[in-house]
Amino acid sequence: MLIPVWLVVILSLLSLAAVVTVGVVAYAVMRNPESNFAARYTEDTIFGVRWRWSYGQHGIYDLCAFCPTCDMQVYSRPATSYEALGSVKYHCDDCGTDLQRFEFGNEEVESRVIRKIQQKLRSAVRDKETDTP
């Protein structure tokens, strides 16, 4: 059974178009500095604590705090024995560094850190937009 020439030509053109499209998209993604910055921007020191995170389908997740001095993972603890005050502090058990005290709870701390990360990402995009002629 022979395949018609016109069918071979159409399939060849569609295959070529698909390869070219994938190549153009890959090139655009690699040349897009803000997308590269966003993909690489996964750690920063914010409010005196080093934070690391990942990106997922719904934004920033897996936010973890680390000591900027020795890089040990740290956790928030109540800053006072009065739980009603809701303040937390970060202290490194390894090197003994007192990192930061916040006058609000852990959920608010993480919310503020995520908003700072988002602000920095937006600033990078804005800076790139003003740099383009």
Report on the structure:
This protein is an alpha+beta fold. The protein has helices spanning 5-31, 33-40, 106-131, and strands at residues 43-46, 49-56, 59-66, 73-74, 76-78, 88-91, 98-102. The protein folds into two domains: 1-31; 42-131, no CATH class. The protein contains three helices and seven strands; from the N terminus they run H-H-E-E-E-E-E-E-E-H. A hairpin with a 6-residue loop joins strand 6 and strand 7.
Task: Give short descriptive properties of this protein.
single chain, about 130 residues, alpha+beta, 2 domains, 4-stranded antiparallel beta sheet, 3-stranded antiparallel beta sheet, 7 strands
Question: What does this entry show, briefly?
Answer:
The protein is an alpha+beta fold and 133 residues long.
Query: Which residues sit in consecutive blocks of at least 5 with pLDDT less than 50?
Result: none
Radius of gyration: 24 Å
Count of helical regions:
3
Percent of residues in helices comes to 40-55%
**Main beta-sheet strand count, sense and barrel state:** 4 strands, antiparallel
Q: Please state the overall shape, judged from the principal axes of the Cα atoms.
A: elongated
The domain tally reads 2
Estimate the strand proportion: 25-35%
End-to-end span in angstroms? 58 Å
Order of strands in the sheet with most strands: 1-2-3-4
